[in-house]
Automatic annotation (TrEMBL):
InterPro entries: RNA_pol_sigma-70-like, RNA_pol_sigma-70_dom, RNA_pol_sigma70_r2, RNA_pol_sigma70_r4_t2, RNA_pol_sigma_r2, RNA_pol_sigma_r3/r4-like, WH-like_DNA-bd_sf
Family: Belongs to the sigma-70 factor family. ECF subfamily.
Pfam family, one: Sigma70_r2
Organism in which the protein naturally occurs: Variovorax ureilyticus
Key words of the record: DNA-binding, Sigma factor, Transcription, Transcription regulation
Lineage, opening ranks: Bacteria, Pseudomonadati, Pseudomonadota, Betaproteobacteria, Burkholderiales
RNA polymerase sigma-70 region domain location: 43-101
Domain RNA polymerase sigma factor 70 region 4 type residue range list: 129-181
Protein name according to UniProt: Sigma-70 family RNA polymerase sigma factor
Record-linked NCBIfam families: PRK12536.1, PRK12539.1, sigma70-ECF
Length: 189
């Protein structure tokens, strides 16, 4: 297998999944082997996406491994391991990019006129109204998970119980709903 080949549904994924599941069952050697093999794949995955920041890749690999270890109980064995791994890696990468953006914004000079403070008092209510309008265009299976989890702060489990959906359906609803919203916003721009 070449380094650029996706892990999904390959021998490498099955081997990693086997080590991971054995590790979850208490096999320390298998779990250690899983972490070592996974770090190689994560390093390649992140290096391709962060080619402008090679110094960040190793730190991010370690953060991902730690997050995967801490969240190992969330893995659903009927799902591809790669999907779970890549989701965690993407979230960690987004966190890194947000942090870098925030740090860079701290160094932006303020205008003499301080126009940054001259925004409309109605901006927050306008944004809420616009968001509500966009959310209303989504089917309930996408809209409700976004409202409950992302806006109201409920957990996936709480949202599943509240809506009668499975936890997987809630997660898929959020993902697909946010993707649909992004597309609608992009079309509007």
């Amino acid at each position: 297998m070449t380094q650029g080949t996706p892990l999904a549904r390959t021998e490498a994924e099955f081997a990693l999944r086997d080590l991971f599941v054995r590790g979850l069952d208490g096999d320390e050697a298998a779990y250690r082997a899983f972490l070592q093999k996974l770090s190689v794949h994560l390093r390649a995955y992140l290096a391709r996406r962060l080619f402008g920041w090679p110094d960040e890749v190793e730190d991010l690999v370690q953060e991902c491994l730690l997050a995967m270890h801490n969240q190992r109980h969330t893995y659903q064995s009927d799902q591809p391991l790669t999907a779970w791994v890549h989701a965690i890696a993407r979230y960690k990468m987004i966190d890194l990019l947000r942090a870098k953006s925030a740090r860079e914004a701290l160094h932006d000079p303020l205008d003499d006129e301080l126009a940054v403070f001259a925004e409309s008092a109605n901006e927050a209510s306008d944004a809420r109204r616009d968001l509500a309008g966009l959310l209303d265009t989504l089917p309930d299976r996408h809209r409700l998970p976004i409202v409950h989890v992302k806006l109201e702060g409920l957990s996936v489990a709480e949202t599943a119980k509240l809506t009668g959906m499975s936890e997987s359906a809630v997660k898929v609803g959020i993902h697909r709903g946010l993707k649909a919203l992004a597309l609608k916003i992009k079309e509007a721009i």
